[in-house]
Design brief:
Strand content: 35-45%
Radius of gyration: 31 Å
CATH topology of the largest domain: Thrombin, subunit H
Oligomer: single chain
CATH architecture of the largest domain: Beta Barrel
């Protein structure tokens, strides 16, 4: 029985006699059995952002090509697949990723050697455009990017006005009527919210 192949990403400081292993793993077994999604199995490209998080092009050569980009934070013991987890030439898959690059908008570009193309993975984001305060207090917003970095807005104080007491006004189709003349009454609620109920 042969020993498993060890794949590593090693960081070398300028002039250093040895490097430091920053990401590692074992190669995948035949036919993709036993793949560990948290470890590298064939690193072919790398990108480091300003915070030291690595983005590793991981190319597991099996009976088919199984490529993805791993996000590996500083000091982490494992990575997290962020794109291309699978095989094939589709827009969501990577067969043999190589070069990795992010632009200033957070869009990811990957060279796919086996398919002979460069794929763009556009940064997707969702933002809540509105919030209704439920009580008086201090409020702020937190935005988190795809790398997990968060930024917090300034704090504002919101003072909610006191609740308006509910009331009901009643009107009639007539105020002076003869005996047996029909009259219709109409009740209108105010300050009772959207789901007012009364009888």
């Amino acid at each position: 029985m042969s020993e498993p192949e060890i794949d590593e990403v090693v960081k070398w400081a300028p002039g250093a006699a040895s490097g430091v292993i920053v990401a590692s793993g074992t190669g995948a077994t035949a036919s993709g059995q036993g793949i560990d999604t948290a470890n590298v199995g064939g690193p072919t490209g790398i990108y480091s952002d300003a915070g030291g998080t690595l983005y590793i092009a991981d190319n597991r050569a099996l009976s088919y090509y199984y490529g993805r980009i791993l996000q590996w934070p500083p000091g982490a013991r494992g990575g997290r697949p962020v794109v291309g987890y699978g095989a094939g030439a589709g827009s969501a898959a990577l067969s043999s990723p190589g070069g990795v690059f992010f632009d200033r908008h957070g869009n990811l570009y990957v060279t796919d050697v086996f398919d002979g193309n460069v794929q763009e993975f556009t940064q997707q984001s969702t933002t809540r455009n509105g919030y209704t305060a439920q009580e008086t207090g201090h409020y702020w917003a937190v935005a988190v990017d795809m790398n997990g970095y968060a930024t917090t807005t300034n704090t504002i104080f919101i003072h909610l006005p006191p609740a308006v007491p509910p009331s009901v006004s009643i009107t009639a189709t007539a105020t002076n009527v003869y005996i047996c003349q029909p009259v219709t009454f109409m009740a209108i609620a105010a300050g009772a919210g959207a789901d007012a109920r009364y009888q």
